[in-house]
Amino acid sequence: MFYDLNIPLPDACGKPNARMSIQEWAQVAQLVEQARVFGYSVVALNQTIQGKLTPEHLAVWRAAPEFQHAELGWDRETGARAAYAAGNVRRGRIRVLRRLTAVVSDAAQGHSLTAATAGAYDVVAVQPMSDKMLLAACNGSWETVDMVALDMGQRWGFIAKHKVVAQALALGVSLEVTYGPALSDAQTRQQWVNNAAAIVRATRGKGLVWTGGVRQPRDLRAPYDIVNLGAVLQLNGDLSKHALSANARAALMHAYTRAGTLRAVVAPKLPPAKRAKLAA
To answer: What gap in Å lies between CA 37 and CA 19, rounded to an integer?
Structure first.
């Protein structure tokens, strides 16, 4: 199974009580369908927010339509998570999940990502904007982080050190490499190569998750095209393939274990209200 855990929603969806138009949902649906045709089994729609997370940020999902040949990972009426995100998908179908990416520039934003506020999402990522925030994202300071998602098209202003990144990998937190900026202008592509190579060096190729982060169906790439892209970063084929399959599944399992199990040992089948109470 191949995964793309980053199909971005419009930037305006990062605001509380945001709404998407029918045309915007139609464009997202085209991306989901193109991913299915390319052979992806699971995709995540990515809502990126600035500032603290609030329950009002979930409003955008209430108007989500049914996607063709797709299984939604949440109940459209209640908004509760409805499917085991990392489970098998029927042939010819694709599972659509919800992802949150929080752009974090101070610790208070990270601490707002609690089980009560972020528990509705199938995977939670943070985009640290400084070396201090990167350290906090990697050392377990914030309880709901499943992936660290650095901006691959911009100069960071800090170094992703192996000593820091290794803390995230030890906790089961993945590092995301988004290939979307590699399809941009020459300057952005060069910055992408520098950033992606820095992550590969820091992680030793372990715990990486390839994602798209593209907004147009024409920019989406088939799984083995992305596997071959790893050669540019001196990433061998097996590790590159794992970044689209096993590592992405592990990120979802990390999120499921965090939100849906009792002390990571037993997974009780509880109603959504009781599950939310237990997580809190």
So the answer is: 28
- Radius of gyration (C-alpha) of the chain in whole angstroms: 17
Amino acid (1-letter code) at residue 42: V
In the structure, what pLDDT confidence band is assigned to residue 257 with cuts at 50, 70 and 90? confident
Q: How confident is the model at residue 265 (pLDDT cuts 50, 70, 90)?
A: low
Residue type, 49: I
User: Is the overall model pTM greater than 0.70, yes or no?
Assistant: yes
SS3 59: helix
Retrieve residue 114's tokens.
């609690």
Using the predicted structure, report yes or no on whether residue 133 has a pLDDT greater than 50.
yes
* Coarse DSSP helix, strand, coil percentages of the chain, rounded to the nearest 5 percent: 45, 20, 40
C-alpha–C-alpha distance, residues 280 and 206, integer Å: 32
H-type helices in the chain, by residue range?
22-38, 107-111, 115-118, 131-138, 162-170, 186-203, 223-229, 237-242, 246-260, 272-279
What are 40's strand-pairing partners? Answer: 2
Measured between alpha carbons, how far is 157 from 66 in angstroms, rounded to an integer?
A: 41
Please state, in angstroms and rounded to a whole number, the distance separating the CA atoms of residues 23 and 120.
25
Candidates 61, 65, 70; CA nearest to 94 is 70
Helix (H, G, I), strand (E, B) or coil at 246: helix
pLDDT digit string, tens, across residues 47-59: 999 988 988 998 8
What does the alpha-carbon distance between residue 96 and residue 85 come to, in Å, rounded to a whole number? 9
What does the mean pLDDT of the chain come to? 88
Return the structure tokens found at 28: 């997202």
